[in-house]
Amino acid sequence: MKISELIGDELIIDELKAADKLGVLREFSELLFEAGRLIDKEGLTRVLAAREALGSTGIGDGVAIPHGKLKGLKGMLLAFGRSKAGVDFDSLDGEKAHLFFLLIAPEDAPGEHLRALARVSRLMKDASLRDSLMKAAGKKEIRRLLSKDEEGRQV
Fold it and tell me: Catalytic residue positions?
C-alpha cells in the first residue's frame, strides 16, 4: 500500500490553524471525525497526547509524525497537515514542525504500523520534497507530490 493511496484530499489540511501541539492533535482528530473515519475524536486525541507524553514525534527537519494505535479501528488511517508558520512540537532538533503526517493503526496491526512509520520517515528525509510540500498550492498538489515521489515504492 502506498502512502498516497491512504491520503485522500479529505485527509489533507493545507494550512493547520492550531498554534500548539495539542491543538494540532485535536485538529487532526476533528478532520478524521468529520471525514467519517472515526467515531470518538476525543478518544483519538487522548491516544495521541498519551503517545506524545512518552516522547515527541517531532522527528526534525520541520517534520512531525504523530501516531498511535486505536482500539476498534478497522484499518490504518493516514492524514497530512501543513503549517507554514510552524508549531513547537518539541522536535528532536528544537525547530518548529511544518509538515505533519498523522498515522493511526488498529491495535492488532503493529507490523503494518511500523512499516508505515518507517516509510513516512524515509520519504521526509528528502529535502526537495519537504520544500515542494511547503510551497504546494493546495491539497491536490500535495497529493500529486506524494504520489509522484512514491512511484514504484510501497509502504
Answer: 67
What is the average per-residue pLDDT within 62-89? 94
First CA to last CA across the chain, in angstroms? Answer: 5
Q: What is the pTM of this model?
A: 0.92
In terms of CATH, what superfamily is 3-150? Mannitol-specific EII; Chain A (3.40.930.10)
Q: What's 141's DSSP letter?
A: H
Cα–Cα distances in angstroms (integers) from residue 31 to residues 5, 8, 65, 139, in the given order: 17, 12, 16, 14
DSSP 37-80: S-S-HHHHHHHHHHHHHHS--EEETTEE--EEEETT--S-EEEE
Mean pLDDT of 2-28: 92
30 vs 48: CA distance, rounded Å: 13
Q: What is the DSSP letter of 87?
A: E
3-state secondary structure of 127: helix
Residue-wise pLDDT tens digits, 112-133 = 888 889 989 999 999 999 999 9
Contact 103, 93 (CB under 8 A): no
